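Hi R.,

Here's the chain you asked about this morning:
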Amino acid sequence: MATSCRGSEGPSLHGDERDGAPCPVPTVGPQPSSGTTFRQRWTDLVFVHWEVSPEAVAGLFPPGTRPDVLDGKTYLGLVFFGMRDLRLSRGPALPFAGRFEEINVRLYSVDAAGRRGVVFLSLDCDRLLPVIAANGAFGLPYRWASAHCDRFEERVLYSVRRKSRQHPRSRLWVAIEGEERGPNALEDFLTARWGLHARVCGRTFYWPLHHEPWCFKDAALLLMEDELVRAATGLTVAASSPVSLLYSQGLSVRFGRPFWIR
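And here is the predicted structure, written out as C-alpha cells:
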C-alpha cells in the first residue's frame, strides 16, 4: 500500500506578510480563492535537481522576486512530464492542443510577501498552439520542440529537440524503484510550490495553483544527455550528478487567477 502523502494545510494564496520572510513550505496547497482559469493533468513526471549558488542565478529572476533558499542553498530543476486534459476552467479538454509532453528548466523563487513559487527559464513542448498562447498572453518562455515519452514497464525515456537554430536537446532514461512515499524536507522545498512568478508587459505576476499532495517513487538515472539547462542558464551543472531524482505517476492540477505583485 502507498504511503500517505498528505501534509499540513498551506497559507493564504496572497502570502504571509512577515517582512519578506518566506511562508512555511506546506505539503498541501491552499484552494484558489479567485476562481479557476485552467485545469490539467500531469503524468509520468521526472524531477531532476542540482544545487546552485543563489548568486549565480539571481539575475534570472523577475523583479520583485529572489532565489528561495534552503539552508543557504538554492536549486535548479529539469522536469519532464506529460500534459493531459488541458482545459479552460470548466470546459472540455482540448482535443489536440491539450495533450503533449513538456520539459522545463526552473528555479525556485520567493517574493516580498513571502509567497514561494517557480520561475520558468524555458518550457519545451510539441504543440505550437500552447507555445504561442502562453508566450503571448502570459510571457511564459515556451519553446516549440519535438518531444516524446516512452514507458517500458518500470523505465521511462524522454527525448526532446527544440525547433530552433541551435536545436538544444535533452534525453533522459530512468528506472523507477520502490514504493510510493511522501516527500522529505528537501523534496517538499523543491515540489510543494503553489504558484509561479513570471513577467509580462513590464510587470511581475504570481499565478496560484492547487493539487493534492505529491507521492513519489525513487528513480535511478540510466542515461542523461542535456543541453537545455545550459541554453537557459549558461551553467554546466547538468554535466554533474543530480542531488535529487524523483518520479511521480502524476496528479490533477487547477490554476487560479494570476495577480500582479509588482
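One quick note: The CA atoms of residues 11 and 30 lie 6 Å apart.

Cheers,
M.
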